Amino acid sequence: MTTPDIDNINVAAFDPMPTPDEIHARLPLTAVAARTVRDGRAALRGILDRTDHRLFVVVGPCSIHDPVAGLDYARRLKALADEVSDTLFIVMRVYFEKPRTTTGWKGFINDPHMDDSFRIDVGMERARRFLLDIAELGLAAGTEALDPIAPQYLGDLISWTAIGARTTESQTHRELSSGLSTPVGFKNGTNGDVGIAVNAIVSASRQHSFLGINECGRSAVVRTRGNRYGHLVLRGGDGRPNYDTVSVQIAGEALAKAGLPVNIVVDCSHANSYKKPDQQPLVLENVVNQIRLGNRSLIGAMLESNIVAGNQPIPDDVAKLADLTYGCSVTDACISWETTEKALREAAARLRDVLPGRQ
Ligand SMILES: O=C[C@H](O)[C@H](O)COP(=O)(O)O
Ligand SMILES: C=C(OP(=O)(O)O)C(=O)O
């Protein structure tokens, strides 16, 4: 018996989606890409375990909307990553899913054509193509895990995962993180609450059983082992930064009190820069200063950076999409490539003498 007056009354359609296996078969992991992911995750685990003295930096566009410009950015970043690799471990920020405060473009996977056609099937495949391309360059990728199903399609190409400020308190995202193969950075809440991120790290470190899909796209009870590489990302909140010495100390005490490793990443963007991209290098400089003065808990940083500084709105008129400025963000404003190079070279130079003796 069909009951359209009772069931799925607010669902307009169920459109077919290729399974993870189908997309993997079209775009298989190559040996070079697998090496990038293995090496990337190993470097990050080493930093979190304090066997690798470097600072890791997740740097790249607020969101990827144009894979051509994204790859152009990735090639520049790879050259810079090699140059500073004795001091900084560089991970490219490859964000395909955007959590919105209310509404807005939800990212390349959700709407790859940016025209409200919401071709998630196309977005997922093109996202995987892009991740493969940058892994082939030898560059590790970091992303925000938002949709709990997407990791089955892309997870083998990711080295670092963020759980965002809007989802750190969500049980679904804690469960998901407990099964992810990468280290996971949990952001403090948008209101600045660090406690929810500490609770998330504890929760994700445990085993969970929950509903998901397997690689064949079939509903499955997912049983996870727990992820012991959860760590805290301070991103500021309620319009106020939280990367200062006192905030970092208090956050570290909260982690220690929960019996967790005291591993803290500073997101130099978002509320830590008052959403003013030009402030990001100053925040990074402050993180470097804290390390130079003996801080032991800061192990990573994040920068929102693109080829061209600033951001631009997505035009309502599809015909005007071609007029978008190449290499400029369509979500949060970013620093330019030149500013990125300068900030990272300076950070590397100022950390070179202090990091090796830090463990
Ligand atoms: O980093 C990205 C944005 O800050 C986040 O997606 C929220 O964006 P919004 O407040 O513009 O929706
Ligand atoms: C959405 C993001 O950050 P946050 O969760 O800190 O707002 C982001 O980094 O894109």
From TrEMBL:
* Catalyses which reaction(s): D-erythrose 4-phosphate + phosphoenolpyruvate + H2O = 7-phospho-2-dehydro-3-deoxy-D-arabino-heptonate + phosphate
- Specify one Pfam family: DAHP_synth_1
UniProt domain DAHP synthetase I/KDSA: residue ranges: 47-343
Which enzyme class, named as a word?
A: transferase
Record's keyword terms, sorted: Amino-acid biosynthesis, Aromatic amino acid biosynthesis, Transferase
Pathway the protein contributes to: Metabolic intermediate biosynthesis; chorismate biosynthesis; chorismate from D-erythrose 4-phosphate and phosphoenolpyruvate: step 1/7
| Record carries keyword ATP-binding | no
Which molecular-function annotation in GO is an example for this chain?
3-deoxy-7-phosphoheptulonate synthase activity
Q: Which InterPro entries match?
A: Aldolase_TIM (IPR013785), DAHP1/KDSA (IPR006218), DAHP_synth_1 (IPR006219)
Enzyme Commission (EC) number: 2.5.1.54
Listed transmembrane segments: none
According to its UniProt entry, the function of this protein is described as:
Stereospecific condensation of phosphoenolpyruvate (PEP) and D-erythrose-4-phosphate (E4P) giving rise to 3-deoxy-D-arabino-heptulosonate-7-phosphate (DAHP).
Task: Tell me which PANTHER family the record gives.
Answer: PHOSPHO-2-DEHYDRO-3-DEOXYHEPTONATE ALDOLASE DAHP SYNTHETASE, PHOSPHO-2-DEHYDRO-3-DEOXYHEPTONATE ALDOLASE, TYR-SENSITIVE
Q: Which NCBIfam families match?
A: aroFGH, PRK12755.1
Q: Which family does it belong to?
A: Belongs to the class-I DAHP synthase family.
- Under what name is this protein listed? Phospho-2-dehydro-3-deoxyheptonate aldolase
Source species taxonomy: Bacteria, Pseudomonadati, Pseudomonadota, Betaproteobacteria, Rhodocyclales
